[in-house]
Amino acid sequence: MEKHLFPKDIKEALAFLEEYKGEARLVSGATDLMLWIRDGKVSPSVLVDVSDIPEMKFVSVMNGKMTIGAAMTHAEIAANESVKQIFPALSDGCRSVGSPQIRNIATLAGNIVSAQPAADSVVPMTAFGAICEIANCEGARMKPLCELSKRVGESYVDPTKEILTKIEIAIPAGKYGTAFKRIAPREAMALPVVNVAVMLEAAEDGAISAARVVASPVAVVPFRAQRAEAHMVGKKPSAELFAEAAAIAEEEASPRDSLVRGSGAYRKALVKDLVEQALTEAAAALA
């Protein structure tokens, strides 16, 4: 690498990317990128560092939504009081990422653009229906987070031309609950064997009006158990209902055998257990 540039704002960062015509690479925490450079997977001649751009370092709550600047670190999000109160599953997910050192530098946007299907922060945001703003020199577009992963390790955001600037999450108007569950070989610095995030919303009569159940890594992108979700809508929360939904989610999931994470059959069983636990926890907020 020949240069490491530190733009003062998003406009200047985009100008740098345009100037170097694909030879520059956007970075923030760079916890994944540095490994890719070391392994020879990518070889940018210029790094454009957006980790300290003020307009990408914030959490705001207004007009019925939470907006998170894409350069916020996992540690900052996990500790944010608004996140803890409004979307506790996101706080829990960010707190599960890597080690304290990694959480202090790795960013939310980095996890999204790196497109790792089991990313502990991406799974809950998928369950919340998060939307991302992606900027380039021609303007900006909004794209659902669930549509950004192309395959493992590759997203539809081009870090040589584009910047993921912020993430928006709509806050349900009525009662809702969220939960995040994770199984890993050990407590610290381990990739999850399975992680699950859920969001439940309730109508005035207490019946479930909307449900999202996301599990990973059981596919090349974070996986929504849509049949399990549909099974719960219109019904009152109960232990029996959640056991049924968890069994359906187990049927829907199709993880492959992995030397690192265990057999597909083992992880299918874990999906059932974690979904049932997460639904039970999320439902407590609906009472």
TrEMBL record:
InterPro entries: CO_DH_flav_C (IPR005107), CO_DH_flav_C_dom_sf (IPR036683), Diverse_Substr_Oxidored (IPR051312), FAD-bd_PCMH (IPR016166), FAD-bd_PCMH-like_sf (IPR036318), FAD-bd_PCMH_sub1 (IPR016167), FAD-bd_PCMH_sub2 (IPR016169), Mopterin_DH_FAD-bd (IPR002346). PANTHER family: XANTHINE DEHYDROGENASE FAD-BINDING SUBUNIT XDHB-RELATED (PTHR42659:SF9), XANTHINE DEHYDROGENASE SUBUNIT C-RELATED (PTHR42659). Residues 1-174 form the FAD-binding PCMH-type domain. This is FAD binding domain-containing protein. Gene3D superfamilies: 3.30.465.10, CO dehydrogenase flavoprotein, C-terminal domain, Uridine Diphospho-n-acetylenolpyruvylglucosamine Reductase, domain 2. It comes from the Bacteria. GO terms for molecular function: FAD binding; oxidoreductase activity. It comes from Cloacibacillus evryensis. The lineage of its organism: Bacteria, Thermotogati, Synergistota, Synergistia, Synergistales. SMART domains: CO_deh_flav_C (SM01092). Pfam families: CO_deh_flav_C (PF03450), FAD_binding_5 (PF00941).
